[in-house]
Design brief:
The protein is mainly α and 190 residues long. It has ten helices and five strands; from the N terminus they run αβαααββαααββααα.
Amino acid sequence: MPVPDFQTLMRPILFVLSDGQEHAVEDLRTELASEFELSESDLEERLPSGRAKTFNNRVGWATTYLYRCGLVARPRRSIYVITERGREVLEQNQQRVDLSVLSQFEELQKFRRARSNPVPPIRTSGATTLVTDDATPEERIAAAYGELRTAVAEELRDRILDQPPEFLEHLVLVVHLANPLAQASSTWPV
C-alpha cells in the first residue's frame, strides 16, 4: 500500500489518541504504519528532496494541522493528547477528517494565512485555501512556501516558549552575536 496522504492520516491519529492518554509521535507512527500495513520500503520512501521520509513528514503535517486547529494538545515536545474538540470532531466525522472538516475552525484560517506570503490567499466556496485548480503554478508555490514558512515559525516559537527563561537569554545573545550588522552597530556590551 502506498504511503497515505497527510489528510488521510488525520482521523486515524485522532482515533489512536481517543484513549485520552499521551502518545509520543513515534508511537503514533508505529500504530499508523501497522494500521495501513506499510512495508519497510514504504516507510523508507523519501520525499523528492531526499531530506525526509515521506511517512514521517505526512504524520508530522497531520499532527501539525490537528494541533493548530485545537483537536490535539501538545503537553511536551513530540507528545500529543486529544482535546475535547478533537473528540467532538472524531465523533461527528466517522469516515474522514481532512482540511474540509478543519476549515470550520478559525484557527485553520489563521494558520494558513502566511504573514510573509506575497500572494493573497485564494477564496473558493467561502473557505480560504492556498491551492485551487485556478491558481497558477507560481501562485501554488508561493502559497505553499508561505504556509511552510508560517508552520516552521510557529513550531520554532512554540519550542522556544517551552524552554526556561535562561534559554531565551542565551538565544538572544547567540543570535545577536551571529549577526555581523548588529555587532558593528551595537551598543550592547559583549
